[in-house]
Specification:
The structure is a single chain. The protein has about 525 residues and is an alpha/beta fold. The protein has 15 helices and 18 strands.
């Protein structure tokens, strides 16, 4: 069998028709032009610039407009996903689930026959408001049909893992999916074997050493060259137009960031050539991806995207995004904290405890790896607190404590407990306690799909300001992915937004801009200003 293993080849013969590139509507506007290969829109971006008079302290708000032109290439083509940690819980689960969806494989449960679905995926299982019809009733369309997007059933899947188990055996080891579904997809998954990966024992917990039997040898430079060849070979062997690389592997410890080490692109490349010990495996994968023109997304909390990676991505005009899949406890926190602060209620303390028994929990039982996770979880309320100076004085912040424990017997079924203590009217206290059972990999796997779909879309979008300007890609740091990530990485000097509703609104309205539609809002003046 070819060393390039992928899901698409194993299932193509029985694959039903899929819907990559389909859209639910066409915009009727002189500002929007459709061609055989693109959608072009003229778009006016309205914003408000605020200044403050030093003497009086009064604000002045000035409405402003910026004219953009967007061009979306509507030819999705053939696209691939390479996962680092393909044989882990998330990688094996998303691969098996896409296969089940692609081939329409159902399975038996105690409640009867279960059909495959993409529930939990923002792109595949949620809708957006398109507008109102003639009777002023809201009209909704699938999120993935606002602009042409890749369908997950069409993704060619491959990747690397430090463990040599085939994906069928990795799926069984993960103990995530129902046994009957495992039985039905096992034979095809057993044909898929991950490519050798990079393993530096210092960066992940010592308890992972027994898994590490599928490794790339040599110096760091040789490993970088090896990874670059893997990406090229995968792309060529499968006839792909684009490849996206995603880190779905274990949490690493934080790497040191220092002048001369990884602060610039050139210093980082030199550090790799010199075999510097503080270049992590995930950073090596990021560099390999960028140099091959493949977007790289970091799904774990470590600081993979060091300044040198960001600069290299900017220089190569390649996308990067991160950090850390936002699936359960943190996603709820980014909703509840925003609600409390926006309601004029002052959170004083947020205490979050969770325990889990999968390999992620095992790895996080090591202090250095837990610290990476603690950092990514702890910043989630910062922008919400900073937005309300009536509740919080400068420098004031709620107490925020995070605890993660490894309990093998619970497996992938993570337990999360949160307590929110808030100050309310006249010095009173309000306490909200939550208990959440999270099927960890079944919540994270749809995020992999969403991150892939949005990243792939952005590779086909360019913009310009002015008719004579050059068409350019968006900034290399894809902050549009923030909805799916715990600790969003943003471009330098860019605000970080963690509030979930704002993140979704931004993504939805940017897609609307690509097709020349105004941003959605809930003013509903058609139902209020009438007689």
């Amino acid at each position: 069998m070819s060393p390039i293993n992928n899901l698409a080849n194993s299932a193509d013969a029985a694959a039903p028709a899929t819907a990559s590139g389909s859209t639910a509507f066409k915009v009727d506007s002189p500002s929007v032009r459709y061609t055989d290969s693109s959608i072009e829109s003229d778009y006016v971006y309205d914003s408000t610039v605020v200044s403050r008079d030093a003497a009086s302290g009064k604000y002045s708000a000035k409405p402003t407009q910026v004219h953009y032109k967007f061009r979306t290439n509507t030819n999705v083509g053939r696209v691939g996903l390479m996962m680092v940690g393909w044989g882990g819980n998330n990688g094996s689960t998303v691969t098996a689930s896409i296969l089940a969806n692609k081939k329409g494989i159902s399975w038996e449960t105690r409640k009867g026959t279960q059909e495959p679905n993409y529930f939990g995926s923002l792109m595949m299982a949620s809708t957006v408001k398109l507008g109102v019809d003639e009777q002023l009733k809201d009209v909704y369309v699938p999120f993935n049909e606002v602009v042409p997007m890749a369908h997950p059933n069409d993704i060619v899947i491959g990747g690397w893992d430090i463990n040599s188990k085939n994906i069928g055996d990795a799926m069984r080891r993960a103990q995530v999916l129902p046994v009957d579904l495992q039985r039905r997809v096992y034979d095809e998954l057993a044909e898929l074997k991950p490519l050798p990966s990079v393993y530096y024992p210092d960066f992940i917990a010592a308890n992972q050493e027994e898994r590490a039997d599928n490794l790339i040898g040599g110096t760091k430079q040789e490993q970088l060259d090896h990874l670059r060849k893997d990406i090229r070979d995968f792309k060529q062997a499968n006839g792909l137009d684009r490849v996206i690389v995603m880190w779905t592997a274990n949490t690493e410890r934080y790497a040191d960031v220092a002048v001369g080490l990884n602060d610039t692109a050139d210093n980082l490349l030199q550090s790799i050539a010199n075999g510097h010990s503080e270049v992590s495996p995930s950073t090596l994968f990021a560099v390999a991806s960028i140099l091959e023109g493949a977007p790289f997304i970091n799904g774990s909390p470590q600081n993979t995207l060091v300044p040198g990676v960001i600069e290299l991505a900017e220089r190569e005009h390649t996308f990067v995004g991160g950090d850390d899949f936002k699936s359960g406890q943190t996603k709820i926190k980014s909703v509840l904290a925003e609600f409390l602060v926006n309601a004029g209620i002052k959170p004083l303390a947020i205490t979050s405890y969770n325990h889990l028994g999968n390999n992620d929990g095992c790895n996080l039982s090591a202090p250095a790896q837990f610290r990476s996770k603690e950092i990514s979880k702890s910043s989630v309320v910062d922008d919400m607190v900073g937005a309300n100076h009536l509740l919080y004085k400068k420098g004031e912040h709620p107490d925020h404590t995070i605890v993660i424990k490894y309990v093998p017997s619970v497996g992938d079924s993570k337990r999360a407990m949160d307590e929110y203590v808030s100050e309310i009217f006249m010095g009173g206290l309000n306490t909200i306690s939550l208990y959440n059972t999270c099927e960890d990999s079944l919540l994270a796997s749809p995020l992999i799909i969403d991150l892939f779909m949005m990243t792939e879309l952005m590779t086909r979008v360019t913009y310009r300001q002015g008719d004579d300007a050059e068409w350019l890609p968006f900034h290399s740091v894809l902050s549009i992915l923030s909805y799916m990530l715990k600790a969003p990485v943003v471009a330098p000097n860019t605000p970080v937004v963690n509030a979930l509703a704002k993140q979704r609104m931004a993504m939805e309205n940017i897609l609307r801009a690509f097709v020349g539609l105004p941003p959605n809002n809930e003013m509903m003046l058609e139902h209020k200003a009438f007689h």
